[in-house]
Structures are given as structure tokens and as C-alpha cells.
Specification:
Blueprint lengths: L13 E5 L7 H5 L11 E3 L3 E8 L2 E9 L4 E6 L3 H6 L1 H4 L15 H9 L11 H10 L5 H15 L1 E2 L9 E2 L3 H6 L2 H6 L4 H12 L1 H10 L3 H8 L7 H11 L13 H10 L5 H8 L6 H10 L20
Antiparallel strand pairs: 1-5, 2-3, 3-4, 4-5, 6-7
Helix pairs in contact: 4-15, 5-9, 5-12, 10-11, 11-12, 13-14
Length: about 325
Amino acid sequence: MPTEPGGRPESQPVTTVYRPSEPVDLRHTLGPLGRGPYDPTTVWDARGLWRTFRTPDGPVTLRVEATSDGFRATAWGPGADWAIAGVPQLLGGDDDWSALDVSASPLLRESRRRNPGIRLTRTRRVFEALAPAIVEQKVTSVEAYRSWARLVRRFGEPAPGPAPEGMRVVPSPVTWRRIPSWEWHKAGVDPRRSRAVVESATVADSLERATASAASLAEAAARLRTVLGVGVWTAAETLQRSHGDPDAVSVGDYHLAHYVGSALIGRRVDDDGMLELLEPWAGQRQRVIRLILASGHRDERHGPRMTIQDHRNH
């Protein structure tokens, strides 16, 4: 029977129980990790979450369920020990909201009261958050979700352990670099985005080290942006997940500025207007955005919709 370096059989699960000191809402906290309804790395059910990762030790399937006094996490595969060790960070154990003052905004104040379990997750895996963010650049969510699902199903590997049928682990950086151009084409990913994913995969290991050793999250973002095809929006989307960045704002998002403006002052604004509105919460702007998104506010969209592009016909 194959064993891990520490002598544990590969098929043997690793389990922990995490009891956070603050409330944690599982869906609000880990929801951003999934990339749409077709994502084969993420499956929700009535009891909790199934999620696959590619860790430094290899692929892993992680199961997280709520218990009466916390969360039970079980992991299978070569990366099981690594994943279990990171459960507190994954569930926002390092995410401190105590300094966030939302008393000046009725909407934020009410959202915080109603959603005390929102936490910012920290996966500790940069490239795994970066690749789908690049696929999502400048296209509709529907396009991006379908492209991501096709690529992961085609080039990922089966999830370890008793994962739900069809679950996959994201391809390794080496595999991403070897995906033929016609497969990107079939997945609806244009050459600009596919080149950016390949370029990121080429330097994936150095990105993991550089962002982990960065003196600040701003420095980590700057290092991400040195990669061709990675801009402010993509770096923010990545660090929100890999590092739990409490301040990263996805500037350039097609709808975010409109939504933030509508929620905070009752009218739409552009990116500059959004940044001005969020300035009082500098250092905590991602937390404010998460409260807005959880508030139930609905923005009436009157502007033009982004057109779905079918790159397979180009």
C-alpha cells in the first residue's frame, strides 16, 4: 500500500476538529473559492463543503462540515497533512474584524449584525487562485465558469478519497504549460488569457515563494503584477483568496463599482468613485465589500450588458 513520507497510507484520512473563538459562516467564508456552478473542484451539500487543492505535497480532497461546537475537517491524499494544518487559516482564523468601524453606514452596520460569521479565507496557494482569475478576465461570469470547468475536467486529475463523482484537482503548473493551443480554443479562452496562464504557470513556484516572503500584501500584489497579463484586478482577486487580503479591491470589475456606489450612496459610480467611497475604510476595504455583497442590497442594472464572446469560432 502506498504511503506518505511520514508512514501514513495514502488512503487513510486525516481529521481535525476546529473550534473557532468567533462565529464562522461556512458558505460566506469559503464561497469565494468556487468558480461557478460547474467547478469540479468545489461541491456544496446540505452538510458542508467538498473541496480539492493542489498542495506543496500533492493533491488533496478536503471535507468540511459544521458541528455543534465548530467544524470537522477530513482530508485524503498526499496533501492531507498540509491541508489539515491549514484549516484554521482556511476558515478565517487569522482574520480579525475587531478594528472595522461601520457605525457611520446603516447598511454596513445592519449587514455586520446579520452576518457575524463572514471571514476572509486564506488558502496559502497563489497560483491556484491566479489561474482562474486570469480565465475570468474581461469576459462574462458564464463564459469564465464554463471555460474553467472544461479545462479542469480535461486536464485535472481525479480527486483523492471518497469525493463526489466528477470532482477533479486543478492541473499542476507543468500541465498548464503543456495544454495545446487548440484545447484553449475549445474551452473558449482567447490567446491573450491563455498566454497569461502559461506565463504564470512558468513562474508559479517563484510566485509562491515571493508572495509568501513579501514584507506586505501591497508588495505581494506588486510581485504578482510583474507577470505578463496580471493587472490590478487579477492580483486583487488572487490575494483575496490566497492571502485573505482585507484591503484588496477588484478595480476594473464590470459591476463592482456600480454595486458599491448604489449600496453606499444610492447611485452608481465608476472605479474612482468607488475608491473614494471606500477610502474611510482603507486597510479594510475588502471586508466592507464583503459586507455589501452579503447585505441583500439589489442594484438595478440599466447599463449595457457585457456581450458573450464565442472564441471557439475565431
